[in-house]
Amino acid sequence: MTPLARIRLLLLPILLAALGLAAWYREPPPPSLAGVGVLMVFDITQSMQVEDVQVAGRAVSRLSLAKRAALRAIESLPCGVSVGAGVFTAHRSVLLYSPVEICANRAEIVQSIGLVDTSMAWGGNSEVAKGYFGSLAVARALPNRPALVFLTDGHEAPPINPQHRPTFQGKAGEVRATLVGIGGALPVPIPKRDPTGRALGYWNAEEVMQIDPYRTPRTSGSPDMLVQSERATEDDLRAAGTPGTEHLSSLRTDYLQLLAAETDATYRTVRSEEQLPEVVNSLLSISLKAAPLPTRQVAMFIALAAAAAFYCLAFLPWHRLRLSKPPPPRAV
To answer: Which domain, by its residues, includes 312?
Structure first.
């Protein structure tokens, strides 16, 4: 039997096996994502206008980065997942719309998030803990109980007294949640704007409450009262404000980590829009890894390659090709 005949005999069972696998194998259906949802709540308070973060090497506001990161995360989600949006300002979080399926409503979701702006705020305060706790309550009340992504810099205004700060009244861990911290590490001035959005400079120390309301009428203004208190715990100090510099803003990482721990949530700092997709997919337990090659398509490719090779070996004029080494030239 010639070498070509042996190769053809080897290709034949490979061809038949691949054809059989392609004909009878059925890919398992992907896991259903119906009911998997996420609610994204954006902090739209004035400190989110601070431009101390970057996108593509350009300084942008914290809210701009939050929105761009949210859109990037939505692009990474597969069809079937639902996305809703809300905003936080003053002491409340308000639902803009309940989670809707992303593929059927992608244009509306993208447009609505693009329109989120600090001009939507109905109050000047920034009571982050109350807003976050309220967002958890909103998510808990929604159908299918979506996961919560709360995007904020953690700046409380007016500052809270850590010994009298808001307490979480719900059940920790009842809603899957991630607190996303956005902002720079260095305190910087907070822009001041009129109701139309026109820039009016920056807030100064005299215009911003530097001490929490609980202490203001009862003390001589000593900013060290909390530190001197025997009742102050480590957690109390993590939530303490910075009297004298409350008109400046930076990312309050310690405080947000404290809120996350108290609600059995996770905390992530996001400094680029590329980081949020992994955060959201991890929260929803959706893998971002590339899907394996479909077995049926691979089998069909192998069958096609084997059939082509079998045809070439059977019908092309291979007999004209020399399959052995040519004899050495004769000596003259």
So the answer is: 3-27+294-320
